[in-house]
Each structure stands twice: as C-alpha cells, then as structure tokens.
Amino acid sequence: MTKTDIVILAAGKGTRMRSQLPKVLHKLAGKSLLSHVLDTADSIQGAEKIVVTGHGGDAVREAYADRAIKLVEQSEQLGTGHAVHCALDQLRPGSKVVILYGDVPLISAATIDKMLAAVNDNSIALLTIQLPNPSGYGRILRDSNGQIEAIVEQKDASAGQLEIDEVNTGVMALTTELLADWLPKLDNKNAQGEYYLTDLIAIARQSGFNVCGIQAPSPSEVEGVNSRQQLAALERVYQLQQAGKLMDSGTSLADPARFDLRGTLVAGTDNSIDVNCVFEGDVVLGSNVVIGPNCHIISSRIGDSVEIKANTVIEQAVVGDRAVLGPFARIRPGTELGSDTKVGNFVETKKAIVGNGSKINHLSYVGDAELGEKVNVGAGTITCNYDGVNKHKTEIGSNSFIGSNSTLVAPLSIGEQGFVAAGSTINGDVPEGNLAVGRGKQRNIAGWKRPTKNK
Predict the structure, then answer these.
(1) Which of 6, 108, 252, 348 is deepest in the core (most CB within 10 A)?
(2) pTM greater than the 0.70 cutoff
(3) Is the CB of residue 71 less than 8 Å from the CB of residue 60?
(4) In this predicted model, what pLDDT tens digit does every residue of 339-394 receive, in sequence order?
(5) Residue 406 is part of which domain span?
(6) Contact call for residues 168 and 139 (beta carbons, < 8 A)
(7) CATH, residue 356
(8) Based on the domain organization, do 111 and 249 belong to the same domain?
(9) Catalytic: 362?
(10) Considering 36, 85, 362, 392, which one is annotated as catalytic?
(11) Tens digits of residue pLDDT in 15-50
(12) b/e string for 55-90 if b means 16 or more Cβ within 10 A?
C-alpha cells in the first residue's frame, strides 16, 4: 500500500483576526479550523499527519498533545516553501505527500484522494479553481498545450496575468523524494522576500514533470480564513451544507439559514426542526420528532415521535418515545426520560431516571432521583439532593402522586402509590400506599388588624 504523509501548514499569525488565539484554533461549527483539516486527514487511509506550527505554537501543541500527529516548528515565518522544508525530515521515504493548510477547513477527503491518484513517476498534482473574482490568489499559467507551466503571485503578476481567473489554491501533492530534491532550489527573490511553495511548479516543469491540475469541486473547499468576517461567512456556507444533507435525509427545516450543527446529527425521517435550533456534540434523533424554535440539544439521544417545545435545553440525556418536553425545560446530564413522559415549562432535571408515563409538568427541580412509572410530580416540587457536602438520591415508586410545592429532602424513598400532600416537607421514607403530610398546622386569627404605614 502506498504511504501517504499529509503536511498541514499552521504557522501563520492571522494578524487580521485581531486575536491572542492562533488563527487555526478559532472555531467553525464548534470545532477549530485545524481540527476540521485533521479530521479530514484522518479519513485518508494510512496517512500520517505533520503539523507545522509557528505563531502561537505552544497553544497549538497543547491543544493537540494527545492526538496522533507530528508537530514541527517553523521558528521564522519565511514563506510556505520554508514551512514545508521544516517538515522534510518527518516525511517517510517513498511517501506521497499532500500539503494542506490549517486555515482552509473544508477541503474534502474525496478531493485529497483525487490529488493522490494523480501523483506518479512523471506527474505531481496541483489543486486549482476558477473564480469570478480571483483577486488575492496566484494565477495559473498554462502553455500552448494547456499544461500548467507556472504560478505567479498577485503581487508579482503583470496586468495581463491578473486577468486570468484560474487560481492556485496552494494544495499540492508529490513524493517525498521530489520535495527533498526541489525545496533547496527555491529562492526568495520576490516582492515578499519569501520562499514560495508554488515555485515548485516551475521547477517541476523545468525538470520534465507534468503538473496535473485537479479542479476543486466548489470554492468553499479552498476558502481560507484570514478575518472574522471570512470565518463567519464560511460558517454559514458550512451550516447550509449540513442543512442540505439533513433535508435530503428526510428532515424538514423551517429555515435552513437558521440552523446550526456543531458536531454530528443522525436523524430518522419525517422530523421537523424550527428556527434557531443548535445541535452540539453527537446527537441522534428518531423519526417524527418535532422540535420548536430556539432549542439547544447537546450529545443526546431522542426517541421517536418526541415533541420538544420552544426554548428547551437538553444535554447528555436520553429521551424516550413520545415524550413531551418544554417549553423552557432544562434537561441536564444523566437524565433518562422513559416513553410517554412529560417534562414541562420551567422544569429542570439532573441525573433523573423518569419511568414511562411519568409527568413533571411545571416549575420543579428533580435531581439525583429515580421515578417509577406513572408518577405525577406537582408544580413547585423540589428534590433537595445536596446537603452542602454530598449528593443524595430520591426514589419515588410507580403510581405515586407528589403534591404541589413539596420539598423532598434526600436521601428519601417513597413507596409505590405513595401520596405526598401539597406544601409538605418530607424528610423520612414513605411506605407503599401511605399519605405523607409534612406541613405546619393552619391557624386562623380572628380580629387581626392589617399593618398600616407610619404617618
């Protein structure tokens, strides 16, 4: 099997970002620009990754300390050719080498594979694209036979060359041996005083090699990020792509332009998602799920025919079939809601196991609790799970009824078919079928006079 080494240039300062954070660590769809490139590189079979760092290199190294990549430093930023030269001793003999950029996050694995396929004993590969406005890019120069002959950077281009709309993306592929032979031949006799990687194209032609031009399928694959405006624009491109894939799979979006995916979303069919919903981490939706506006779902699994009403937050939770949540519910990590459950407005749950058919309809906090089936929790109920040092568990048996404004002081167990009177504070176990009343006796005071203001 052919060996593949992927060099990712990530040494740029990103001056126009106006940030202390290295440019490649700025996030697109909840993930750093560099992570997007690395994740794509991971999908290339057998590829080893070499990341060239520079400005903010310590932050980059810290961010990827646990990742299977090689990190090399470009101590002086002397151009892209110099950056690749810094990685040269990390490349394996006999490898095909692809050079990518840490601030160009949306290149696809399919495009990389096409680049690799074009590399052979006589050819190297260069990724190009035709743009209606090519300003800022190096122009592709072809000979009379249509073969790529050279690249000229915009600062060095003539007026006629500036009219060319086919541009260089900077992405190229060739062998380790050719890089080792050609990189020392680069010079910095140009307007920037830098060693341009793109000058390898002219060297390749002079050495009798073909330069195979691979056309990028869309501008977004080669779009770089140099400013926050460009980052925001590319975010919307990415999100529209994800929205399109989701709709193709059978989910309706009220407005694809107001949908955000910051992770992965696996969905069944016939789902409906309203505006301004954010999906983060790894989310799984069943089928026939209806999600209202302004919901935030994080690393959770949602069953079939679930209704999630407006402004509901679900994080690291499991929601059973036909559950109804919200509006304004907060489902915190560790919550598992059974089928046909209801968690209503202004209800918060945390590490709560809620059995099938149970209801917590409004204005309650249920944490570190286990509820059986068909439990009804009245408005204003609170499980007091924290004593200031430790968390304690509340257990409520099936078919129990918890009256409104009840305070359940854990550790506590309420047996099946238990009944807690409204307004009670319960700090002792309730046996099966018992009524628990834990409230002060009411007194009515005759002749009581309402307070008046001092004159």
Answers:
(1) 6
(2) yes
(3) yes
(4) 999 999 999 999 999 999 999 999 999 999 999 999 999 999 999 999 999 999 99
(5) 228-436
(6) yes
(7) 2.160.10.10
(8) no
(9) yes
(10) 362
(11) 899 999 999 999 999 999 999 999 999 999 989 999
(12) bbbeebeebbeeeebebbbbeeebbbbbbbbbbbeb
